Amino acid sequence: MTAGAGVAAAGAAGAAGVFLWGEDDKPVRAAAPAAGAPARSLPLKPSAYRLQPLTGYGPPRAAPGRTPVRHEPLLRMTGRGRTMVLTFDDGPDPRYTPGILDTLAHYDVRAMFFVCGEMAADNQELLGRMADEGHIVGNHTWSHPLLTRLTRRRIRSEMSRTSDVIEEGYGERPRWFRAPYGAWNRDAFQLGAELGMEPLAWTVDTLDWTTPGTGSIVDRVEKGAAPGVVVLSHDAGGDRSQSVRALGEYLPRLLDSGYHITLPHRRYT
Ligand SMILES: [Zn+2]
């Protein structure tokens, strides 16, 4: 079985769940996606693929500093080589997250976990394990609301409470933010930057939240595999046993086909 590596070098970016912004900063396509579903994007301009800040790979730097206010989230990494980032959203969930962490540890791979505050508060030991094992924990709001329907005050509360609970369990404040449903607005970008977080979306959506079958999740990752791709999966929010099993299948195949699974690092610290 081929790992699909390199098959979809061009196609992967088109699957990114990101809003495109018009002249007046209103989303070009603002329809709210179904729960967990990032909206399908319009074709992106080539320039949108080449977002500059994610130029390097490696562990995040420690010192927080000024974070730029963006108008769209980052979708992928730039750089050379067959390098990909794996991300897991909505957890941590003691039913599924440990299995994902076990597989990552088995292959000595680091990933990103965009956690929800209300899940993190109940599962602080899993945040501690993520820290111990070198993963990045990002902020995915407290209760997973559609931010575009909230007041600025509510958005701030959703974000800052989550950063607080991450700091408790993980040991440092998150430096990455991902909006639920991929639904960003100006407040989300501004408040995220105020809290020192860069907005990270994704390139390839496994659609694992639809429980399409383990094989289907594996296929989506392998078909979408390409340099710089950021993969979206979930470790909570429903029955994620397919997501856990799929990781055990696609991860060794990605590694066998020469992919290096890594973490983004920020140019602006
Ligand atoms: Zn989510």
TrEMBL record:
Keywords: Hydrolase, Metal-binding. InterPro entries: Glyco_hydro/deAcase_b/a-brl, NODB_dom, Polysacc_deacetylase_ArnD. Residues 82-262 form the NodB homology domain. CDD domains: CE4_NodB_like_6s_7s. Pfam families: Polysacc_deac_1. Transmembrane segments: none annotated. PANTHER family: CHITIN DEACETYLASE 1-RELATED, GLYCOSYL TRANSFERASE-RELATED. This is NodB homology domain-containing protein.
